[in-house]
Amino acid sequence: MLAIACIKQVPDTTQVKIDPATNTLVREGIPFIVNPYDTHALEESLRVKDRFGFRAVALSMGPPNAEAALRKALSMGTDDAILCSDRCFGGADTLATSNVLSAAIKKIAEEAGDEVGIVFCGKQTIDGDTAQVGPGIASRLGFRQLTLVDKILSLDMEKRTIRVSRKLEGRHEIVEAPLPVMLTVVRELNRPRYPTVPMRLTAVDASVKVWNNEVLKLDVNTIGLKGSPTWVSRIFSPERDKGEIIGDGANDPQGTAALLIDKLLSKDLLAL
Amino acid sequence: MTEPKKLKKPRGKARLIEGKCIACGARCQSACPVDAIEMSDAGEPIVLSDKCIGCVKCVKVCPAEAIEMFFTPEELKILEELAEQQAAGAAPVVDEEDAEEAALAKMLAAYRGVWVFVEQTEGEPATVSWELMGVGAQLAKEINTELCAIVIGHGVEHLCREAFSYGATKAYLMDQEVFRFYRTEPYLDACCHLIDKYKPEIILMGATGMGRDLAGAVATRVKTGLTADCTGLDVDDKRNLRQTRPAFGGNIMATIMCDKFRPQMATVRPHVMPMSEKKDGAAGEIVREQIALNEADILTKVIEIIRDTKVGIDIAGAEFIVSGGRGMMGPENFAMLQELADELGGVVGASRSAVDAGWMPHDRQVGQTGKTVRPKIYIACGISGAIQHLVGMQDSDVVIAINRDKDAPIFEVATYGIVGDLFQIVPAITNRLRELKASRNKG
Lengths: 272, 443
What we know:
The complex is a heterodimer. Chain A has helices at 36-52, 67-76, 94-112, 133-141, 197-205, 213-216, 253-266, and strands spanning 2-6, 9-11, 17-19, 24-26, 32-34, 55-61, 80-84, 116-122, 144-156, 161-168, 171-178, 181-185, 209-211, 231-236, 244-245. By secondary structure, chain A is of the alpha/beta class. Chain A has a nine-stranded mixed beta sheet with strand order 11-10-9-12-8-1-6-7-13, sandwiched between helices. Chain A is globular, with a radius of gyration of 23 Å. Chain A starts with a strand and ends in a 6-residue tail after the last helix. The N and C termini of chain B lie far apart (107 Å). The longest helix of chain B has 21 residues, at 422-442. Strand 11 (171-178) of chain A pairs antiparallel with strand 17 (301-307) of chain B, so a sheet runs across the interface.
């Protein structure tokens, strides 16, 4: 049985800055990382490999340099790594992305002559923040979906069922579903392992398979830019009223604090 | 006399305007029909001018207006001459009417109505649904259509009436035993049944765990676009939905369109839209629908719903919030913020970087991927103010920013800004509050 972890290489958005002069993103020197939530998806695919003998496969879509993310997966212990990369996949929104990834998952199963048991995805990416690709994949494959999983309570390989805890607003849900299933996972699920030095060295030589659309044979109108119903019509930095700087906070913290409180009291914003 | 030479309109070549590219993901490259665009390592396009045919497709598709057409001086001269000829009375070039466009217009016209999905757990509605009614009513008014509620569940007819009181004029009700607990499969089938039959043009859902689970599945099944976590929604003059949300990790805003597909779907986070006004007793039409689906068909089972008993800190509902960011330097320094929050009767929040650093738990995070808050007073300490944070707190009544860097974006949303060392200023505020309270008690 196969456990597939879908991962994405993303810019470390906490380090992206805006150039105040030109109002554009400053991207120079921004490192690429594996989407943090996806590292938990990877880890869980390795745990079902270790405990239940699944074959763990890491899957990604992106430009050729996204191979680095898959190499990280290999260094953690993934058996196989596949990158869907083709210029006709570019410019994809979540609908088009889920099309490529679900086609690749079918292909992985076909090539392995094995069935997919669980697809793991991070709950969302830190660059897009949409949380839409996981449900998109499940919907296209006809798999059950269990999103926001924070604990796997049991995996019964005989009955082919999985029981998980889902973390929702103000509550947890305990849900059971039959395999095959797509899970999106939150950070509380596990602690991702560190690749050991020998694993890292092995990963350097291991090969990442690159699949283009000659392999997946998807209708070009359903992938990339052409297959994306949504598109960005405008990008802007919102204009705001400049705030009022009060006091001399650097040289007179006490005086400034008093001034602030006077202002709040005079506007009836504080009850003492 | 020689025949006047017929001038051919030059098409020009595409070229990149330095510094404007935002590396959106090679949209220009995908749009180019002749492979004339390659991508640099930085994700910016390199236009191979000998291959470019001047079709302008890349120019149109660029969200940042970073590609322009370049004409040689000779070409510019020809363009000038053509313009002169046209001004002198030559027939203007008529755009070819497109059969494709007519078919598209017909398809779009078949979809009408704004729908809001009413989220509920065991019959209890999620307030975000009522917040969405407000913006939904506004959209419906602008495009002269009706606002409808989608109510799916078991024993949930009362939610239709509640939806009317929040502004819906019609409610599609699917009340069956099989919908008692939310599971993706039956709710997905129910939604798709309604969409196929009644064809809405806009569907809004809360960007909650349930809303996102369902919206992603529905959009994929009906093969339409879905925009997550919108902070602004309005319509253009062609009744297309303009969906604005933070992009690139919250560093900038983007307006997303889905103008060639229907329905247009968007999710909105709780507390982003103001609560719509409630008019008790407002009436509307209930449209009852059923699908042939039994519990035995659904293989996913909800075993238990555990309400979080540990009353966590509810920053979303707090009136006073003291938040800390990267400038707090370490987890131990949050005690100082807690003291101020205690004095105010409020709670401590945090920015994404403080949460990512492990200084505060995720349930304290304010911002696009955390919670949206609307307190009376929001005090941002050592928070520089990435848009992803600003969208989460900018609707606070009063924002006080304390930061060493006078150029920090947080000052642009601050009602009162204090430039200085928060490690001196925060205790000074706390002490001042204590002094005042003590003197009042004496007095």
